[in-house]
Design goal:
The complex is a heterodimer.
Chain A (H helix, E strand, L loop, with lengths): L2 H10 L1 H30 L19 H8 L10 H34 L3 H11 L6 H12 L4 H8 L14 H10 L1 H13 L3 H9 L4 H29 L3 H6 L7 H10 L4 H25 L10
Helix pairs in contact in A: 1-2, 2-14, 3-14, 4-8, 4-9, 4-11, 6-8, 9-11, 10-11, 11-14, 13-14
Chain B lengths: L1 H31 L18 H7 L2 H34 L2 H16 L2 H18 L11 H25 L4 H9 L4 H29 L5 H4 L6 H10 L4 H37 L2 H6 L12 H22 L3 H40 L5 H4 L19 H5 L21 H5 L2
Classes of the chains: A mainly alpha, B mainly alpha.
């Protein structure tokens, strides 16, 4: 038995120590690392019926990744324009949703963190209540509002803004509103946590020295809140790029989200390796994007999840 | 000072807008649960009805989904709290050089898209299943097992974060003291560490249950034969929506508000009791005559809680005796009358127009016969009344009540499918 393991068992006892070690290994290796590796491996294999798996035809291939870029073999187009466009659109839209959420939530987080009083508790409670309600039901609520004969159209047509009802769902406005709505809390909490620990005297000092309101935020509050902001942005970006429920319910019939393509590969085409390849592409791209942005804004990985 | 108050005002306006974005959809959805039209809508209001609630409670699939959700939730809570606690304890002991890597690994599932977790769980356990040479319907490919495993992968990370926060305030000296006094490791864990961690474990368990209950992205790949409530809801919402779903949402909203208020009230009560103890004299404390504040005194949350509870009882009471049949019949009658009225109006307008046009023609007309220039009434053509001059005017008057059978009347077809379109000639 290596010395560090011996010390570990000395400290925790044999029984308790092995239960703990067993749980941690099961979680990290059995649930996190191996499934991801297995998905990666699977994405390089051809789609075979179950009896042939592991047989002579089960060789590594790049076919699934080629399909995403070049489309079906012998197809009429040089590139798989449909899927690539969906992929591109998903990423851009996720970035826009993240920025929208940041702009929406920063003032609220700042206000909640820097104001004292009883009403803050009430506001915090009102903030949390929507998040106890199912994701599907939240999307459903927005669909009632944005539908063709929905509340918003009734109001707008009634007020004479539009002559005929505006199709919010086909124009993806409902989708963006839904994605933004779904992740507000994840943006507010990290920023709130950081700003709450900011000493109010720093703001007072900046004000006394004649700094304007925008300058205080740009030079004092935002640099201080950077870990919270990046943590919130990372979570909102990853979750909205990987969202499935909101696009399925609120998305227009002609515009798909990349996760919907993955879903189709799995459930409608039952081409698991193809779906796994798409999932790998989504995961790797999102992680690279987040890491690149973290490097640009000089934030550490350890700040995430605080 | 004027500047200051302007800023205050704008803050309040912003807060109001923000919270109406946040809560407005839920309020509107709740209202639709009580309105009688078959498509969930808040306006126009027709009849107060409770039929959507009874429709909800008669829906086998929803009930089955709730049962599965609870099963999955219990499994996930057990597994992820255990793994989260082990992971958190390990974080305090692990070799410092390995700590950053270890932390990245156990925090990563929060950032991995749920879809990816679902797929990787499915693929991996399918392979394990084949490795052991088991059948396709073995324990390892059971939907319940896969869902619990898949959800626990990332829910354990949430639990870990909650537990680590509490563990950081734990004095390891307490465990050491217990061991010195002759406790076994298991005893020290059960009698010292666990009681200290209890509040954090409780909140981690609640968080885990809620996260599991509302998870869709991962579950949609793993559920197999055990569709959870969320899966059933998603399928219903995707293939046509009814106010029964609003009714379910309303129940969840009410339960949530209850839980939140009860939590607030108990926190406030504890504060008040502590304050009363603090200001009491020693004599009062010893004689046990200390009068603790009543449950409702200076506790707004408790008062609101009681009011909401009473309102709920009143609503449920009304629901058992109330019947909307009369109202629904009235609305139908009213709709019929309105339709009739509109037909009358249209006919009258058409007659007036015709008269006017004839008069014009007669004025301009020199020798030309009036009949030729008057547009022929197109009621015999295959287009129904689309080209009838009155048919398009309906759009501008936009009155959804009057079109009970054609909710899609604003579509590009004009009013071809409107029941009055054919009658009006």
């Amino acid at each position: 038995m290596p010395p560090f393991l011996k010390e570990y068992f000395n400290r925790n006892g044999i029984g308790l120590g092995s239960v703990m070690l067993g749980l941690v290994l099961f979680w990290t290796v059995g649930l996190i690392i191996l499934p991801q590796l297995s998905m990666l491996d699977f994405s390089f294999r051809p789609n075979l019926p179950p009896p042939e798996i592991g047989g002579p035809k089960d060789l590594y291939t790049l076919e699934n990744y080629k399909y995403l870029i070049f489309g079906p073999e012998g197809g009429s187009q040089d590139y798989n324009a449909v899927d690539l466009r969906v992929f591109y659109r998903t990423l851009i839209a996720a970035v826009l949703v993240t920025l929208f959420n940041l702009m929406l939530c920063y003032p609220i987080a700042y206000y909640l963190a820097q104001t004292k009083g009883n009403h803050i508790r009430v506001l915090a409670l009102m903030l949390i209540i929507p998040y106890w309600i199912n994701e599907i039901l939240r999307a459903f609520a927005l669909r009632i509002i944005f539908g063709e004969s929905g509340v918003l159209n009734n109001i707008l047509v009634g007020a004479g803004v539009f002559d005929t009802p505006f199709d919010f769902i086909r124009n993806d406005i409902a989708l963006y509103a839904g994605l933004g709505y779904a992740y507000i809390l994840l943006m507010i909490f990290p920023i709130y946590n950081v700003i709450e620990s900011l000493d109010r005297n720093q703001i007072e000092a900046a004000r006394d020295m004649g700094a304007s309101w925008t300058r205080i935020h740009r030079r004092v509050v935002i640099p201080y809140a950077k870990p919270g902001i990046s943590s919130g942005c990372t979570m909102v970006f990853m979750l909205s790029a990987g969202a499935l429920a909101a696009p399925q319910i609120l998305g227009g019939p002609s515009s798909l989200w990349f996760t919907q393509l993955i879903y189709q590969q799995f459930n409608d085409n039952s081409d698991w390796p193809q779906g796994a390849a798409y999932a790998v592409v989504l995961l790797v791209t999102c992680i690279l994007l987040v890491l690149a942005l973290m490097r640009v804004f000089k934030v550490n990985m350890g700040d995430i999840g605080k | 000072m004027k500047n200051f108050s302007l800023m205050r005002l704008s803050i309040w306006v912003y807060l109001a807008l923000f919270f109406s974005y946040l809560l407005g959809p839920l309020v509107i959805m709740s209202v639709t649960a009580f309105n009688s039209p078959g498509f969930p809508r808040a306006a126009p209001w027709e009849c107060l009805t409770f039929e959507w609630f009874s429709a909800l409670f008669q829906d086998e699939r929803i009930l089955n989904g709730i049962k599965n959700s609870i099963l999955v939730g219990l499994g996930t809570v057990t597994l992820s709290v255990a793994m989260g606690l082990a992971g958190a304890l390990m974080l305090t002991q692990i070799w410092p050089k390995l700590r950053a890597t270890y932390y990245t690994i156990i925090i990563a599932p929060i950032l991995i898209p749920g879809v990816v977790i679902g797929i990787s769980t499915l693929v991996f356990w399918d392979r394990v299943n084949r490795l052991f040479g088991l059948d396709a319907d073995s324990f390892l490919s059971n939907g319940l097992f896969l869902t619990i495993i898949g959800q626990s992968t990332f829910i354990a990370s949430y639990c870990m974060l909650v537990l680590v926060a509490r563990l950081q305030r734990y004095d390891i000296g307490l465990t050491e003291a217990a061991l010195d006094l002759g406790a076994t490791h298991a005893q020290a864990f059960r009698k010292v560490l666990l009681p200290f961690m209890r509040p954090a474990i409780a909140s981690a368990a609640v968080l885990a249950f809620l996260a599991s209950f509302e998870n869709y992205n991962t579950t949609t790949f793993t559920f197999g034969e055990y569709p959870t409530l969320t899966i059933e809801l998603a399928q219903k919402v995707r293939y046509g929506i009814t106010p029964a779903i609003s009714a379910l949402a309303f129940i969840i909203v009410v339960l949530t508000v209850f839980a939140a208020l009860a939590n607030e009230a108990s926190i406030r009560r504890k504060e008040l009791v502590a304050a009363a103890r603090k200001s009491a004299t020693v004599e009062e404390l010893e004689s046990g005559k200390l009068r603790l504040p009543g449950f409702l005194s200076s506790n707004t949350a408790a008062v609101v809680l009681v009011v909401v509870a009473m309102m709920t009882i009143a609503v449920v009471g009304t629901a058992t005796v109330y019947s909307p049949a009369q109202c629904i019949a009235d609305v139908k009658e009213q709709k019929r009358l309105e339709t009739d009225l509109r037909i009358q109006e249209l006919l009258q307008r058409r007659a007036e127009e015709k008269a006017r046009r004839e008069a014009e023609q007669a004025e301009q007309g020199g020798g030309e016969p009036a009949v030729e220039t008057t547009p022929k009434p197109s009621n015999n053509s295959g287009f129904g009344g689309v080209f009838a001059p009155g048919a398009l005017q309906d759009d501008s008057t936009e009155d959804p009540v009057a079109e009970p059978d054609a909710p899609a009347s604003d579509s590009g077809f004009g009013n071809v499918f409107d029941p009055d379109a054919l009658q009006n000639d």
